[in-house]
């Protein structure tokens, strides 16, 4: 059997060659059998790919569809290749089960199989530069339809044209021979005997057992191969996929499949205008080749008899957005009788020719890639407004999606939101400001919106009020509230059922809410709470399109705790597509966000750099320090550092010493003898992560027991390094509490672990929040985000983290107010120097955005980079990775590498860092073991990166408050006073506090608090420092501390200042009884909110009484002056 389309596969896969050739030969006489053979070709190729990748399981009852999705998820198959496999599979299934199949479908499948064969040859045949020549069309029978006959004629013309072009261009002898052979094949096809091919097919079908045996051999061989080879296959597959070229007809075939998955009836061969296809009631048709004055639109989409969109499709290599202009031209000139036009059209926008359809699409059928937008995805534009800009989609809208979009009245929604008041006293002022900022962003067309609000300031309450307003005025149809943990999802669902919105009705009584357990929302559901993990299962891992949500299922997404998991897509330039897997740069979270065509509102307390780059700059920010100043959050006292002998000196093991190493996964402990020349040293950053000392942890637990007795009000949250470490802390803390207070005073359940491994974590969190016990909870990271336990008064760090975001979230667990237990502040106990390590980091400190790519992967990238620019870019990453690996090498591996390369690793690295990418590639090729030696796990980490067990003795050295690095309370105060005096005449906020307190505003006070917080001068820290230095605890307020430093004002308790001010103002002039009552109310409010300005009287109980305007009437319009008088009287010097 020979076939110029598939002969190139003979050497690397005889079975693929056989199936491809049979599919081609059966085309002339039996399109159905040809389609079945094409399907078998695709199925066998998928199995071979799985076996070559070491992931094939012959015993698994796995369908081809499931195997395809698994290979795509594991990034073995590029997505554009997987789409072609699916198209062949679906047409083959239809032929198998329904005895269907036209010559047009068979020809399309053949062309897809030929493209897959070329990709396979370039990838697994290790022939990336393979040039197959043009597709050679098979012999056709007499019953081939006219369109297919024309396509075959065109394909034959391409074959002959290729031969002429190559001859004219003096092509290589090999290329010219291929072209001539293709032309000769056309002449030979007419004499082919189909009976011979049928007999051959029957004979070969019997050999299935042999095929299974060969697949098993491939699987075993792949398992024995180094991981590096699999990486090379993946990169070669991506490079080959980027060079796939499908013609416009093939592109339409792929689009047919995609449209059908979205709920449209699509067949660009049969459902055409010329074939008589017309819209019908009750059907959603994608009719191909619909006429217009300027040509034929590739597709016209009809919902029933109404045309809702025009699609323009181009072949894969064409940029998509530029094609959208052609679709818009068709939207103006499409031939539509009145009964097929939308009743709200046409849409004029001042054009000579108005748009006759509301929507247009353009695509080249490539999967959407954010970093390669213009060459991928589906581009969509809503033509109903001239201010609507094109935007990319990852998949097609369903018919219902487009109907829903048409029913949304944006102008009415904008007007309704503008006229809707917040209602007096329902929201805090900053929450109203946040909602107003979000709504303004929505109305002006922003689709990615970031809001930053400190932990404990009511982000969920704000989000619920926002959703109520947006749904009430029909700006959005259905909102997805996206969380990353079930505990947070249930907390949100509970809030929706308890938060009163309208009268006595809560949100869930007004709007239908779908909970976590519901896979897809019902038509009547207007809010769904879901975890990212569940949506990954429902979208990325769901093989049945009917069971997936459509991209228009939600038109708004509230992203809770947006800093978690949303890793910025790594840098990806167009030239990188050939050698770097795009899936390495897109997190599952980002894919979910991109999947839905929705406005995204991201909420976070810690807006890291990568969060801003995804969602834009915050439209509203309300920080922790501002919330503390305004009395909505608690501040912390100076942290207490727990210092032991081991934490100060580190842990050291001598060479030749026996050490115990515990396997992180199994818990098994092995004894390991260090080589004589290898010693181990661990500093505090390694404690409980790379080395475990029970003596150290016991002393920390003893300090917790003495510093935080069970009798004190409030709860304690302890952060451990890992789950087994949390178990140890629970055991040791119970023992130390019993030792300190007696066993009878430490009931079971006083100390508890709450991590992701315990049973019914939600119930335990509720117990921690509402019940007396547990009093002390040990966690790893389950309680770092979103969980609301206001009674937490103490945080204990026995875990070192590197992320400022995670650190801020850990601190945020204790910031909430809890007046029921008299909580005025919270305390931090630090056993690992975490506070000192991270406190000075910026909230916007960049987060590592590139994935942790192995050195072997980077070396493969270097080999595949085609330009010098690309090689230089990858080479820089290789050098950085090599430097990191050299630093952690053990002595034995370092010596092996030195012998291999002929110089010390450091010297080699220094020299290579100045060389070109090509020179680095040559060096690596000349030293083939260098990558393996560099990536070898150091001896110091033990088996499976285990944890070394230390039995060194330890003792407590001191527990001391931290005011700064090596700073005493006196030094801290001196630094504060110096800062104030140097800036009191330059910084506006300091000028206001020191020179004109009468006119001080809340905004200026917030600016002052933020400025001082940047320098680590918070009110709680200053109060503690002055208390230690002067042996007196005076709650003088931040303004009092600033004025003392700048002007020498005495430190007087702030509450006393307010009481004195009330007396002074009451005595300043005659007041009515009603006015005196208001003065006292204002005075009481000023003890919590320390600036008297109109905003104070427009919130809380004052708002319920009518706010500033109503109260001003009681003072005959002089309320502004009264407020100024309060500010002046509070900060007036005391009478001599």
Beta content comes to 5-15%
The radius of gyration over CA amounts to: 36 Å
The total count of strands amounts to 30
Structure annotation, total helices? 44
- The end-to-end distance, rounded to whole angstroms, is 113 Å
Derived structural class: alpha/beta
Low-confidence runs: 166-176, 189-197, 566-586, 842-851, 940-944
- Sketch the major β-sheet: 8 strands, mixed
Shape: globular
On the 0 to 100 scale, the average pLDDT is 83
Please give the domain count: 7
Q: Which bin fits the share of residues in helices?
A: 40-55%
Secondary-structure blueprint of this entry?
Layout: H1 14-26, H2 31-52, H3 64-73, H4 79-98, H5 103-124, H6 146-168, H7 173-188, H8 194-205, H9 208-224, H10 227-242, H11 248-261, E1 265-266, E2 284-292, E3 295-303, E4 306-313, H12 321-333, E5 359-363, E6 378-382, E7 391-393, H13 399-407, H14 410-419, H15 429-443, E8 448-453, H16 459-472, E9 479-483, H17 486-498, E10 500-502, E11 505-506, H18 507-510, E12 513-514, E13 527-531, H19 532-540, E14 556-559, H20 588-595, E15 599-604, H21 609-615, E16 618-622, H22 624-629, E17 635-636, E18 640-644, H23 645-649, E19 651-653, E20 658-662, E21 669-673, E22 680-682, E23 691-693, H24 694-707, E24 715-719, H25 723-741, E25 751-753, H26 761-770, E26 776-779, E27 792-797, H27 804-812, E28 825-830, H28 834-838, H29 855-864, H30 868-887, H31 891-901, H32 905-912, H33 917-926, H34 930-934, E29 947-950, E30 956-961, H35 969-983, H36 988-995, H37 1002-1014, H38 1019-1030, H39 1037-1047, H40 1054-1066, H41 1073-1086, H42 1100-1104, H43 1107-1114, H44 1119-1130
Parallel strand pairs: 1-2, 4-5, 8-15, 8-16, 9-13, 9-14, 12-13, 14-15, 17-28, 18-28, 23-29, 24-26, 24-27, 25-26, 27-28
Antiparallel strand pairs: 2-3, 3-4, 5-6, 6-7, 10-11, 18-30, 19-22, 20-21, 20-29
């Amino acid at each position: 059997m020979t076939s110029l389309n598939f002969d190139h596969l003979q050497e690397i896969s005889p079975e693929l060659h056989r199936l491809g050739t049979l599919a081609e030969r059966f085309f002339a006489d039996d399109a159905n059998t040809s389609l079945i053979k094409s399907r078998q070709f695709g199925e066998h190729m998928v199995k071979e790919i799985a076996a070559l990748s070491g992931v094939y399981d012959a015993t698994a009852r796995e369908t081809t569809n499931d195997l395809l999705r698994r290979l795509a998820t594991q990034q073995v198959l590029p997505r554009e290749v997987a789409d072609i496999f699916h198209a062949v599979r679906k047409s083959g299934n239809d032929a198998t089960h329904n005895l269907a199949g036209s010559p047009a479908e068979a020809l399309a499948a053949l062309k897809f199989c030929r493209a897959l064969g070329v990709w396979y040859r370039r990838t697994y045949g290790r022939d990336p530069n393979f040039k197959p020549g043009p597709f050679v069309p098979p012999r056709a029978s007499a019953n081939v339809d006219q369109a297919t006959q024309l396509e075959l004629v065109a394909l034959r013309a391409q074959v002959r044209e290729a031969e002429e072009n190559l001859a004219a261009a003096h092509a290589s002898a090999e290329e010219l021979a291929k072209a001539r052979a293709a032309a000769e094949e056309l002449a030979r096809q007419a004499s082919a005997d189909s009976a011979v091919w049928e007999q051959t097919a029957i004979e070969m079908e019997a050999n299935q057992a042999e095929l299974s045996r060969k697949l098993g051999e491939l699987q075993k061989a792949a398992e024995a191969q180094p991981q590096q080879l699999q990486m090379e296959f993946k990169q070669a597959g991506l490079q080959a996929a980027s060079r796939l070229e499908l013609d416009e007809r093939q592109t339409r075939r792929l689009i047919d499949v995609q449209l059908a998955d979205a709920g449209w009836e699509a067949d660009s061969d049969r459902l055409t205008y010329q074939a008589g296809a017309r819209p019908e009631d009750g059907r959603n048709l994608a009719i191909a080749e619909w006429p217009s004055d300027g040509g034929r639109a590739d597709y016209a989409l009809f919902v029933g008899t109404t045309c809702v969109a025009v699609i323009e499709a181009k072949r894969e290599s064409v940029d998509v957005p530029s094609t959208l202009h052609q679709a818009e031209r068709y939207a103006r000139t499409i031939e539509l009788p009145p009964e097929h036009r939308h009743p709200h059209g046409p849409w004029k926008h001042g054009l000579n020719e108005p748009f006759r359809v509301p929507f247009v699409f353009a695509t080249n059928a490539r999967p959407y890639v954010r970093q390669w937008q213009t060459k991928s995805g589906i581009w969509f534009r809503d033509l109903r407004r001239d201010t609507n800009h094109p935007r990319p989609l990852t998949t097609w809208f369903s018919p219902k999606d487009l109907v829903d979009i048409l029913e949304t009245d944006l102008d009415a929604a904008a007007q309704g939101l503008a006229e809707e008041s917040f209602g007096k006293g329902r929201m805090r002022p900053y929450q109203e400001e946040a909602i107003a900022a979000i709504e303004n962003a929505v109305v002006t067309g922003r689709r990615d919106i970031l809001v930053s609000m400190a932990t404990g300031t009511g982000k969920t309450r704000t989000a619920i009020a926002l959703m109520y307003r947006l749904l009430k005025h029909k700006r959005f149809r259905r909102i997805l509230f996206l969380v990353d943990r079930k505990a947070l999802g249930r907390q949100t669902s509970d809030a929706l059922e308890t938060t009163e919105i309208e009268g006595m009705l809560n949100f869930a009584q007004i709007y239908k809410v779908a909970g976590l357990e519901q896979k897809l929302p019902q038509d009547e559901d207007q809010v769904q709470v879901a975890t990212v993990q569940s949506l990954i299962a429902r979208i990325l891992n769901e093989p049945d399109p009917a069971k997936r949500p459509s991209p228009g299922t939600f038109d708004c997404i509230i992203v809770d705790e947006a800093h978690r998991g949303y890793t910025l897509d790594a840098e990806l330039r167009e030239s990188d597509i050939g050698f770097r897997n795009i899936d390495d740069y897109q997190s599952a979270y980002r894919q979910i966000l991109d999947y839905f065509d929705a406005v995204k509102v991201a909420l976070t307390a810690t807006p890291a750099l990568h969060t801003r780059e995804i969602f834009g700059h915050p439209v509203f920010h309300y920080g922790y320090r501002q919330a503390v100043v305004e009395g909505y959050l608690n501040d912390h006292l100076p942290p207490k550092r727990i210092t032991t002998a081991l934490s100060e000196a580190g842990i050291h093991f001598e060479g030749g010493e026996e050490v115990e190493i515990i396997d992180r996964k199994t818990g098994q402990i092995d004894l390991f003898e260090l080589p004589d020349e290898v010693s181990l040293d661990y500093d505090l950053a390694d404690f409980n992560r790379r080395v475990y000392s029970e003596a150290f942890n016991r002393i920390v637990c003893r300090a917790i027991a003495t510093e935080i007795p069970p009798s004190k009000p409030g709860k304690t949250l302890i952060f451990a390094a890992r789950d087994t470490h949390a178990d140890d802390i629970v055991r040791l803390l119970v023992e130390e509490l019993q030792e300190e207070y007696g066993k009878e005073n430490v009931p079971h359940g006083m100390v508890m672990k709450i991590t992701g491994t315990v049973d019914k974590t939600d119930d335990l969190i509720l117990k921690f929040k509402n019940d007396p016990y547990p009093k002390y909870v040990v966690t790893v990271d389950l309680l770092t985000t979103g969980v609301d336990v206001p009674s937490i008064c103490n945080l204990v760090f026995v875990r070192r983290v590197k992320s400022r975001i995670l650190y801020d979230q850990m601190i945020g667990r204790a910031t909430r107010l809890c007046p029921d237990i008299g909580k005025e502040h919270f305390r931090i106990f630090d056993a690992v120097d975490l506070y000192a390590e991270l406190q000075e980091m910026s909230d916007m400190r960049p987060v590592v955005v590139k994935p942790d790519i192995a050195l072997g992967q980077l070396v493969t990238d270097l080999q595949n980079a085609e330009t010098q620019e690309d090689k230089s870019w990858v080479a820089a990453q290789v050098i950085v990775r090599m430097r990191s690996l050299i630093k952690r090498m053990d002595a034995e591996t370092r010596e092996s590498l030195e012998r291999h390369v002929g110089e010390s690793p450091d010297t080699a690295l220094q020299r290579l860092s100045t060389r070109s990418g090509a020179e680095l590639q040559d060096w690596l090729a000349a030293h083939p073991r260098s990558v393996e030696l560099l990536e070898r796990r150091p001896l110091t980490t033990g088996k499976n990166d285990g944890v070394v067990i230390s039995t060194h003795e330890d003792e407590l050295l001191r527990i001391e408050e931290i005011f700064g690095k090596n700073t005493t309370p006196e030094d801290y105060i001196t630094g504060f006073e110096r800062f104030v005096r140097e800036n009191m005449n330059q910084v506006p906020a300091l000028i206001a506090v020191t020179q004109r307190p009468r006119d001080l505003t809340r905004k200026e006070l917030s600016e002052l608090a933020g400025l001082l917080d940047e320098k680590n001068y918070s009110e709680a820290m200053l109060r503690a420092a002055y208390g230690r230095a002067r042996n007196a605890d005076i709650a003088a307020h931040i303004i009092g501390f600033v004025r003392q430093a700048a002007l020498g004002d005495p430190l007087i308790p702030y509450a006393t200042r307010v009481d004195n001010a009330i007396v002074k103002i009451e005595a300043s002039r005659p007041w009515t009884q009603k006015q005196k009552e208001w003065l006292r109310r204002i005075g009481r409010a000023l003890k919590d909110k320390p600036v008297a300005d109109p905003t104070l009287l427009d919130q809380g109980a004052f708002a319920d009484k009518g706010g500033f305007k109503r109260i001003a009437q009681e003072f005959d319009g002089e309320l502004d002056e009264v407020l100024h008088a309060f500010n002046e009287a509070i900060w007036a010097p005391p009478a001599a």
